[in-house]
Amino acid sequence: MAFVNRREILFLYSVKDANPNGDPLNANHPRYDEDTGQIMVSDVRLKRTIRDQWIRDGLHVFVDGELKTLKVRAEEMKKVLGVKSGQEVLAKCIDARLFGATYALSKERFSWTGPFQFKWGRSLNRARVDLVQGTAAFATKADAEQRSFRNEYVVPFALIAAYGIANQYSSSVTGATDHDIDVLIDGLWNGTRNLITRSKLGHEPHMLVEITYNEGFNGVAGSLDERLEIRGLDGNRLSQEEQLALRSISEIQINTRAVSEAILRHDRDVKQVRLIHSHDLIMSGLQPLGNLDDRLVVEKR
Q: How do the domains of the chain map onto residue ranges?
């Protein structure tokens, strides 16, 4: 049964000595806002993190990351799932149910707007991008006297906030369920921890806030990622130089007061707030959420 309660998700994770989201049109340089100094991560990157985890978990996904045509992939999945139409395939693939899909083969053409969507993620701190050079494993020519060189970009440290909304109205078309949303949350947390490729090793999840609203509520607290603030362990705001010098989550605390107050403004419409956080994260400003009483569920991972 399609889910009927709107949800909001705020996710916070750190990246150390890795490339959060390279731009293939810019020599794989990390996506970066030159004006603010913030590292940026696309919604596509976030969805890939989740999809990769779903594949590890043995779930059916339609977009598997392999280079192939829509026709080839559709035929593959029809055989795997034992169905005949594209719509039947997508209905059995969790990524299509949640993120949507466009299908256009022969006379079967339709488009699903995914009920769950992320906005672009941004780092809470000003960060820098370093160019690292080294030697490759092999030479480029048989008669070369030395191995070739390689270049790569890394971000010394960034704390990235991502924000998403689960829209109950679109779920009625795709068939996304409450269980699908729960699986998405686990995929986001565990998938971030399992980013262990050479360019992605160094990702760690630290906080996930999920707000589930009462049935019939159509609003949102809104832009929760923009309400988070990093501060020093003494509670003071960090200068740009101090932000650039950060190298560990243990050097800072996360002020969540603006997030908590935004949620409490919809107190009567909130069914549950779920807070997952790492053992290393230091948080402040959570006091307003105490007014939710038994509607607040806290979990350490």
A: 7-58+113-300
